[in-house]
């Protein structure tokens, strides 16, 4: 059975108290309605075992929606290029050739690019730290999100995808314009997003053409080369679709990961010895950050049930769209004892923070490396940081890209032992 209690979970998730702390609501959802039909018509799957199974069986019992499925769910897309771009990007996941491109990129990121970009992360982080050091030492508050996590993650993405230095500000502004328009679903914002999406797509078509003429040692060149080995691909829509998915989900999620790490530093000073140890200890701290306060609230891409699927005594009917509630699954006590306690010593191998199965996060190695490098550098330079106010959470939570993020995260220097 999958009857609903009448609780509007999406509305409650959007409320200020849930933006600050969704976990009481997610616990209720997991314990009472683990397969919940939302007011929007799609289902939320929140138990760890069910979410794990659903992610692992994508492509079989559950499938990624195609272009027509997404268009039916988002009918307003037809009149807005920005929404068309988003749909095309997500629908590319179901097209032949996308999986091979995605696998190539995952291997490339895991094997070579993360090592190469690690030094860039350290250099850029040091510059950002230097830029705020005097103000922190003078007792001023600094916005970690605006001054560290967002600019740093954008610079890393820009370097990976070959965005030239003098073009980065414009591309960054346009990507954010598109993301903001899609979240707001406001006519004025969508018109601005339409123009921005056309500029971004035009820019990346130029970058793709340039890499064909003059290959470089970057991820864009590798993507173009892998794409062009298949002569049946008539245009560059697959590359552009992959780029949009990465920019719309990876950029924000990477910044949110750094913000979560900083919040853990502020909230759990008794665990900061993990950041003063070796690389393995820092990695354990990062894994617990990702489990304890998940960046991804809901999977951004829904799955469609290819048949009736039973999750215990609950049913996901054939044809239904479902999204896995990663944040609820990562605090399932059947898998993580005492799940509401922050404990980097726990076994975090079962976490679903980076997904599971055929759509495991492309940039998982990059996100983990970025978080380990930045959090250890920040803590080493400023060991006594404290909150300078409450985080300002984004207005839209989890309904579009699945990310629960902040717009502002104020910090300041404290005194030892504070």
Summarize the structure.
The chain has a single domain, classed as Cytochrome P450 (Cytochrome p450), CATH 1.10.630.10. The protein contains 15 helices and twelve strands. The protein has helices at residues 9-14, 16-20, 23-32, 48-56, 67-73, 81-91, 98-137, 144-160, 168-184, 187-213, 219-228, 237-267, 279-292, 326-329, 364-381; strands at 35-37, 43-45, 62-63, 142-143, 303-305, 309-311, 314-316, 321-324, 385-387, 392-393, 406-408, 410-413.
Q: Strands of the largest sheet, in order across it?
A: 1-2-8-5-3
Largest beta sheet, briefly?
5 strands, mixed
CATH architecture designation = Orthogonal Bundle
CATH superfamily: Cytochrome P450
CATH C-level class is: Mainly Alpha
Can you count the beta strands?
Answer: 12
Question: Helical stretch count?
Answer: 15
CATH topology: Cytochrome p450
Helix content: 40-55%
Low-confidence runs of at least 5 consecutive residues: none
* Total discrete domains: 1
Query: What order do the helices and strands follow?
Result: HHHEEHEHHHEHHHHHHEEEEHHEEEE
The residue-averaged pLDDT reads 85
């Amino acid at each position: 059975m999958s009857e609903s209690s009448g609780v509007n979970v999406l509305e409650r998730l959007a409320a200020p108290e849930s933006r600050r702390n969704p976990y009481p609501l997610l616990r209720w959802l997991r314990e009472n309605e683990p397969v919940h039909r939302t007011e929007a018509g799609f289902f939320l799957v929140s138990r760890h075992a069910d979410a794990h199974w659903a992610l692992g069986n994508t492509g079989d019992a559950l499938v990624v929606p195609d272009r027509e499925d997404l268009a039916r769910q988002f009918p307003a897309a037809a009149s807005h290029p920005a929404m068309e771009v988003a749909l095309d990007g997500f629908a590319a996941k179901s097209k032949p050739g996308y999986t091979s491109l995605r696998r190539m990129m995952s291997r490339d990121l895991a094997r070579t690019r993360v090592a190469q970009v690690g030094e860039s992360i350290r250099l850029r982080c040091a510059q950002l730290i230097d830029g705020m050091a005097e103000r922190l030492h003078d007792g001023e508050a600094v916005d970690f999100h605006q001054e560290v996590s967002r600019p740093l993650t954008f610079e890393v993405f820009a370097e990976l995808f070959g965005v030239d230095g003098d073009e980065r500000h414009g591309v960054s502004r346009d990507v954010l314009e598109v993301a903001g328009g899609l979240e707001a679903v406001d006519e004025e914002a969508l018109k601005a997003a339409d123009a921005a999406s056309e500029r971004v797509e035009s820019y990346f078509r130029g970058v793709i053409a340039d890499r064909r003429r003059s290959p470089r040692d970057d991820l864009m060149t590798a993507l173009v080369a892998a794409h062009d080995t298949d002569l049946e691909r008539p245009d560059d829509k697959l590359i552009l679709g992959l780029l949009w998915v990465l920019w719309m989900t990876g950029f924000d999620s990477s910044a949110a990961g750094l913000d979560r790490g900083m919040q853990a530093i502020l909230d759990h000073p008794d665990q900061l010895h993990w950041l003063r140890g070796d690389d393995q200890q820092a990695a354990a701290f990062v894994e617990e950050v990702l489990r304890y306060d998940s960046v991804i609230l809901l999977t951004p891409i829904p799955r469609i049930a290819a048949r009736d699927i039973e999750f215990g005594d609950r049913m996901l009917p054939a044809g239904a769209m479902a999204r896995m509630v990663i944040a609820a699954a990562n605090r399932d006590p059947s898998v993580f004892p005492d799940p509401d306690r922050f404990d980097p010593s726990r076994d975090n191998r079962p976490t679903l923070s980076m997904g599971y199965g055929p759509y495991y996060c492309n940039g998982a190695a990059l996100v983990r490396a970025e978080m380990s490098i930045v959090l250890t550098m920040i803590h080493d330079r400023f060991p006594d940081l404290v909150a300078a106010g409450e985080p300002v959470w984004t207005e839209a939570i989890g309904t579009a890209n699945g990310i629960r993020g902040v717009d502002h995260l104020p910090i300041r220097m404290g005194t030892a032992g504070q």
